[in-house]
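> @MW can you paste both from yesterday?
MW: sure, first one:
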Amino acid sequence: MANHSRPHICQCLTRLASVKRNAVVTVYGNRKRTGREFVDGVLSLAAGLIRLGLRNGNVVSIAAFNSDLFLEWLLAVALVGGVVAPLNYRWSLKEAKMAMLLVEPVLLVTDETCVSWCIDVQNGDIPSLKWRVLMESTSTDFANERNQFLTTEMLKQRTLVPSLATYAWASDDAVVICFTSGTTGRPKGVTISHLAFITQSLAKIAIAGYGEDDVYLHTSPLVHIGGLSSAMAMLMVGACHVLLPKFDAKTALQVMEQNHITCFITVPAMMADLIRVNRTTKNGAENRGVRKILNGGGSLSSELLKEAVNIFPCARILSAYGMTEACSSLTFMTLHDPTQESFKVTYPLLNQPKQGTCVGKPAPHIELMVKLDEDSSRVGKILTRGPHTMLRYWGHQVAQENVETSESRSNEAWLDTGDIGAFDEFGNLWLIGRSNGRIKTGGENVYPEEVEAVLVEHPGIVSAVVIGVIDTRLGEMVVACVRLQEKWIWSDVENRKGSFQLSSETLKHHCRTQNLTGFKIPKRFVRWEKQFPLTTTGKVKRDEVRRQVLSHFQIMTSSL
């Protein structure tokens, strides 16, 4: 008999079927479904999967854009005790095969965008694969594929909608495998439990204030932990989900108005796109319906935040810091609160002469610890532990990578975030940089993120990436690549007049006025014309930036 005191992500279905029975809970294009219709869809699909032969602990890979059916598949697989392993639709077929060989799925589900993967892996490339399913296809271009594969509707056919009586669990309560890049370039499968998702969802509900009256726009892909964890929070409170296949700023702004969106999540690049499109197509018009915005994947610059407040004046804007291995967010900070006449949290903190970027305070369920460096009284590795952390990397018996043991708490494992930071006197966590990304210059440690945080505070800088370049004298030289704001020009002449001109000397002066230590100030600046190369999660590919810099400058030497 199932033990219903155990956490399970499908426990949200009971509430949806009752409290939201006749209310719309999903919107995908012209298709709208009530709570009862959505739950019936999950239960019918789950029954079809059992009849097909899916068993506890079986892995199901899903490669698809966001849709209501993606949510349905996530919950149906979980309901029968399966484990969902979303594949990034931006991957090449080679990358997708590497991920599948790691997690050994028995079933592959794709939409039309990734249907070629179903075709190309049918010849024994993935030995574990038994079934291939086309999630949905209405296009005549895929008539032949519909005859080759199972479909969602086929699995639901001739299935009476069962009652929501029992749940099943994988042997170790695993429910999702999220892929993250390993140091070798091969994907690593972060194994996440039901408890981790529920704990994370409750934190988001408590801190962001999500409720059943919210209308949530899915801007983040459901293949990433940010999109998945926020989706789970919305399922738990019974909010309405509005799903776009993939993020597009123009479409997103239109959908916000048409569907009366109240909340969404962003990364800085998304917010920049929304601001740019709003400025060009809507003449900077306000959207007063949005009430909650949660930003992750990097900090919002003060300029982006000001513009976001202008567009969404009624929104409480929060930032979150986290990682896939911790099921998303570890800390939260309110950047703007329209209910307070004079809200000043972020700017006073960021204007203090401190290192790095402030990311706020830990969520109620989170334990964080800074393991101090031997040569530092306040800076060290950021460690975390608790029910939110991953079970392990798939293929490992325990979460043995990234684990530290605290000497003060013997034999109790802490997860190493890979970040370096410090707590201030108010309990706020400050990020200094990545432990594996630091630059060693003249025997001193420089964390790129700390320098970048200072540079982007200059009104002429949109974004900056700081790298270390081999130098015969210093070991590594600090080099900053910068993107300029519109109407600013680069003129590397020290005394040339003009308020909209930038030079190496003006940026060095800016760093000094922000109390950046001398050895941390970049020795060289590179003007970057295009967007910085990003990962699929919106983070800068620092190694690619370094490679491009070195390809243009064969020899770079410091002048000191």
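MW: second:
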Amino acid sequence: MGLKKKLLGMAGVALCSTLVLGACGNSSDEGTGEKKEVAINHDSQFPIIKEGEELTLNIMAPGVGMAEWEDMPTLQDYQEKTGIKLTYTTPPSADFSTKLNLAFASGDLPDIVYGAGSQALTASMEIDYGSQGILLPLEEYITPEIMPNLYALTQEDPSILKSITTPDGHIYSLPMISRNATSIWWQGPMWYNGTWLDNLGVSELPKTTEELQELLTRFKDEDPNGNGQADEIPLTDVDMNSTRVWLMAAFGLRTRGIQVDDDVVSYTPTSENYKAFLEYMNTLYDEGLLDKEVYGQSDEQKKAKGENNQLGLFADYFSFFTTGRSEAEAMNDPMFQPLTSEWAPEAKIPGSPRISRGTFALTNVNPSPEGSMRWVDYFYSEEGTKYIEQGPEGVLWEYQENADGEKVRVYVDGIDTDNTEDERGKITPAYGLTTPNIVIDTTGEYHIRKTADEEPDTRFSDWVAQETAEKMEDIAEVPFPLLYLTIEENDKVAATATDLTTYVEQMEAKFITGVEPLDNWDDYVKTIEAMGIDEYVEVYQTAYDRWKAN
């Protein structure tokens, strides 16, 4: 598996996984049954239960097809460490949401729902099943004695608890907490073709919308790819997915939807700022600066243009995913510099809340909630998250001594070092899932080398981290906090949301490509108002006010 698949699986990680882990309570005779108190060890990290005690927990989990969970060495080793036996039910990930809903409906529950993500274990499910007592409140266990690692994180960043606390004051699921260098990204960045910049003698990136338009015009007119043909495409994307984010920011907008500024919630697609953004993009389109195929082309079609050296500014997780160049060559493709305009005199961009909810929940058949919470807490430490990512010593990696006498991690014999993600997927559940742990960069002692004396090549990742720090870190703001709506609030917005999103998406494409003239803006706004946008915004204002007060 390539780097792109790994990163996209984690990134967003960012923001929204559709997978959930879990196991049905009656899937094993050893599992859920009559509850009894199990003595928990608080004197050390391991074992979790005291000597002589027995505890078996059922985990319901989506199968990703790499290995059966009972065969994963990481989980086998963790049973030995903790003293807690595990059983699993792992329906295919494509069926998992259905199976989870069936488990709740039938009462055939797992002890633990693990790695769900908010698309499968939704916010409304948390509130609904929590209010019924089917999902257990977890906040009483987030203490220095029971969960020292997660507790410490919540003390460092109080927004974590605010983001996972439901309107009734309870916490029904634990999050994935991302703290790696790129976790602040709201969307994959845009990248300039560095070769074109060099060929045109461009030494400073555009900082305003006017400067960007001037550079895109040069891309179009001055043959920067040097083939003597007018085949350059100054700006492209797939359905504007990333371009929208970064260019809307130049007009004071951090999202095409609900945004809060100075505690006032608004719906940005009806704002004058958004109209100005559409006018700007329509100008780029009319002048041949925006790809005529930006709406409708596939990622593969975009990639073909990149590999043919036809693109000047484009969106992707990393530039070499589009251009086909090496990492070293990609370091000449600078990250997009956020812009200002008359609508936004200071550059601001959307930032990720860096939290993914719904990764770990306990049901009311769990025989030891405290033991279960102790079980997961290890993964909220630096050592524990690398354990769940890389497995125990001797499986994927082993310690070897290098020429300087230092112990370093080295891939064990037999590991396909060109496909380490596939190898990892066979040994650990932390593969393509939104799991309960922290996400941090793999550096220092946790870097796995091919040989003991190999110097880790971190030049590209270091460069990306530097570009992110310089161009995003200080100006990124979350458009709207991660919060919960009540069941009633969710019902109010659910019916409107789909129609609203569909209409705005369709009209954006029409306005930018000129199919719909911007002279019809007022009619567009009236249509959105008729959909009930005022009531829609009011719901989110109420939810925001409640969130802020807590």
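> thanks! The domain at 190-350+476-550 is CATH 3.40.190.10 (D-Maltodextrin-Binding Protein; domain 2).
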